[in-house]
Task: structure prediction
Amino acid sequence: MKIERQLVSMPARSRVRCALLAAVVLLAGCGSGGGASTGPASNPPAAAPTISTAAALNGAVVVSLATTTSGASIYYTLDGSTPTLSSPIYEAPFLVASNLTVNAMAAGSGNTASSVTSKAFSLNIPSGALVWSDEFNNSTGANAQPDPAVWTYDTGAGGWGNEELEDYCGWNSSISPCSSTNPNVYVGTDGYLHIVAEQPSADVYTSARLKTEGLFSFQYGRIEFRAQVPEAQGFWPAAWLLGNNIATVNWPACGEMDVLERVNAAGAPDWNEGSIHGTGFTGSNLGTQYDFPAGETAAGWHTYGMIWSKGSVAYYVDDPTQPYATYTPASIAGLSGSAWPFDNGQANFIILNLAVGGSWPGSPDSGTPFPSEMLVDYVRIYAN
Result:
């Protein structure tokens, strides 16, 4: 049974839009999408956002938004509409690989809404072009830190909403039970990202969970993870995505897309599961199992991919022309209280982790080998 991946370590920030409305005078009520008035003289407008870019690949760019008004939130759109307090809140730099216009405004407690800053992008990138990647290259001659401009970490224990058993450790952590002598995450000289599950003592487990939250995100495109995973009782490797708006709407309203996910020892046939989750469809509602061809297992190298476009999330293994599952808003039409979260304007961030134990796989047993590792050759994003 598919278990909900609630992120208990990431509480939503207290950005309650109706509370903000007490300071930001709107022409219409809270959440109505009305434009902001000039407001009383005691509430000056927030500083208009700046829009800056950094080069990605093949003409794509990573866009960052900023305002000099302390405590102000930035609201933005990518569809040409004027941003309001109901628009997505900027949480992290995001990839732009298509022709679109970024519109952004800032507002905060004590400040009325700023003017709108706009920047049009005419990139004309062909479909299928590689627009971003982390190849986990390492020529240092020693184990290296995953790129700190891209990757940060969830750390600690607490079960992570799934009754997991491990403590997650960050790069070079030596806080018990983590050990820099036996690291749980590093880029090796072999050019692979290593996520290592350790058992430093009886009933104590460590591993790692990397994420791009706050550092990098994207909306729409084809993402691939080339990886091989450990297969034994109690192991739960995954490569997945969450909406940046988890900071404001929490899980599952932010949406979750699971690209690589499996548990325990190799099956016959062996398998991977591709799932989506959102309000009204968590647990096992929308997950599809892919069976590897005879003689293949997830312990071998495979490319796990997702094609995300407006109104569609599709999954494949090894061959992007052969999706084994495609989900659309029609997929959740019969589920009470469900809401499709993948086209609300927000970008998503990436997570890579190797869990130990939990309510889906159960606990390791005497035959579970430690250390064991999940290897990732690359993470790549292609233009739709």
Observations:
- The first strand starts at residue 50 and ends at 55.
- The two ends are 32 Å apart (CA to CA).
- The CA atoms of residues 311 and 328 lie 5 Å apart.
- The chain has two domains: 17-121, 130-382.
